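Exercise (ungraded).
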Amino acid sequence: MSLAERQPATRRIHVGQGENHVTSDPDVMLSTILGSCVAACLRDERAGVGGMNHFLLPDSVGNSNDPAAAARYGAYAMELLINSILRAGGRRETMTAKIFGGARMFDDLQNIGGNNAIFAERFLRDEGIPIIASSLGGRSARRIHYWPATGKALVRAVEDADAVKASERKRVREATPVVDGAVELF
Amino acid sequence: MPAASAINALIVDDQLTMRALIRSTLQQMGVTNMRDAGDGEEALARLAERPANLIISDYNMPNMDGLGLLRAVRANPDTRKAAFIMLTGRADKELVQRAAQFGANNYLVKPFTLMSLKEKVEQVFGALT
């Protein structure tokens, strides 16, 4: 048997901002790069299914009429991931979480990364999902590799964070995710 | 113009966080009479204890989903007149159509704004004071 036959080919799936991916395939590795953003990696060990999301909360500070807008967006991002795991056979009661990201990437903006991290920790605590590992805060961007079938996660600092910073700065400015769909029935 | 104090709301969502967010949003609108439930079955138990005139329910829940709850609410003479607002995901166009067929009064797409929830409630009840 050749080495190639013995080693299963890892299929790498990138999870971009606003996305989530759930799988039970042992050959799938989910990857993402995080600055201020947070990625929650949730998994039900018994069902052997898990997934990752990647979100950046909108800046609700400027909207004093709706201070909970960011939390509603974050809760929705988490709900999408949890529901996908439930649909794939996982159970909420036996889910565990690993959370990453939330770095302070900008000096000239509010601590968006810190707020993202606080939200994720609070959400998981309130929903009763144990956080079994985390790497949050700091000033460095992170590269995350996560294998949902086993729960293994690798975190590496991204040395050249300029591209991450530029991309996030643009997304922070453009972030207007709280919008309604339109289905004219009522 | 109805008073917000006349609203007796039941909030149904399997996420505690989302229930708390809806509760705080309704509070900002002046609604004070609220209860909540974690799924459709629990919601029916709450309604059996005491009726509600506004039900805001998520669709995707364990045990009994939002459509199941809507059908049960409309089938029961004690609850069928309650206003029902269904919370949906952005991609659930088919669900919105089914909710309308089953008698939902309105729907709201997550993640919603304070203004959009207020608008939906006022479309059902009229402007609140």
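Further reading is listed at the end of the chapter. For now, observe: The domain at 8-174 of chain A is CATH 3.30.1330.200 (60s Ribosomal Protein L30; Chain: A;). Chain A touches chain B through 26 residues (CB under 8 Å).
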